[in-house]
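re: ur question from earlier - yeah i can do the single chain one, its not a big deal. heres the input i used so u can compare w yours
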Amino acid sequence: MVDIKSLTNTQLERFVTELGEKKFHAGQLFEWMHGKRAVSFQEMTNLSKKFREQLEQQAYLTVLEQAAVQVSKQDGTRKYLFRLSDGNVIESVCMKYQYGNSVCISSQAGCRMGCTFCASADGGLARNLTAAEMAEQVYRIGEDIGERISHIVVMGTGEPLDNYENLLQFLRIINDKKGANISHRNITVSTCGLVPQIRRLAEEKLQITLALSLHAPIQEKREALMPVAKVWPLPEVMEACRDYFEITGRRISFEYSLIHGKNDTKEDCRALAELVKGMNCHINLIPVNPVKDTGYRQPDRSHVQNFKNMLEKSERNVTIRREMGRDIDGACGQLRQRYMKTGNGVKHES
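and the output i got, formated as tokens:
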């Protein structure tokens, strides 16, 4: 059976011609799946009955099931738990801004990177998501809120570049004018620093934004927070980021979770300013979301502001991320973590 929703328009053309259909039916099929968000082949009424029967026999249509949704009483942020066909669960977040609706989607069920401050790593990696499963998070959220999704951040559960081929397929599909037609300039892809994949992605010359989960500017501290740093040390990661900008012309974003007593000292601030010196980049400071059992907590507000001020005095481009969804398991992996540990015991809210 073919995972038909994970095929690009060009791949669909090959598929339908092999079934004996005209090539133009591929465009109709693609539009039904990615433009009209059809959940069954029978909805595709401008396709012949015979063709729809062939599709049901030889392909399957990925549709995610909403297991739970939590809605923040503070800012309206919506956090979704979706159930996959094999029983795995993933989470996604929808945030409303003045410029439009932004969704943060997962790229894997679980994660094998093992970052100590992140709930996504709890339980390790179950499997990669398909391109269709990534796109479906966008579609189901759009259907639920009844509004267009304009921005995507691939920064939920999982390491996107650890699922490289499916990620690339998703980026092609979501950008297609016959589907969601979301500009690559409105898509951010996060990575903890997989150097070979960063270099591969640069050669694709996509107009997406690359966000490096940095979290510490000193090698020893980064190793303590992120095991991947032992494989790809900071000098190699930063060189790959500089090359990424040279090849694509796209400014790098550095994500920096501030953790009290771990990476928030004046020494850390000076090291961070020096690390990104001369780069066309943006530093996004994130007061860490407390995750149970880690013991990590965020610095107080004045300390975060002082850290930002020091960076600005060094003429670095920096912002403090607006905290959203704090009252609804806001950190990556928290809702999934609670679901896995309590055995479906997640309350559905609306």
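The chain has eleven helices and 14 strands. not sure if urs matches, ping me
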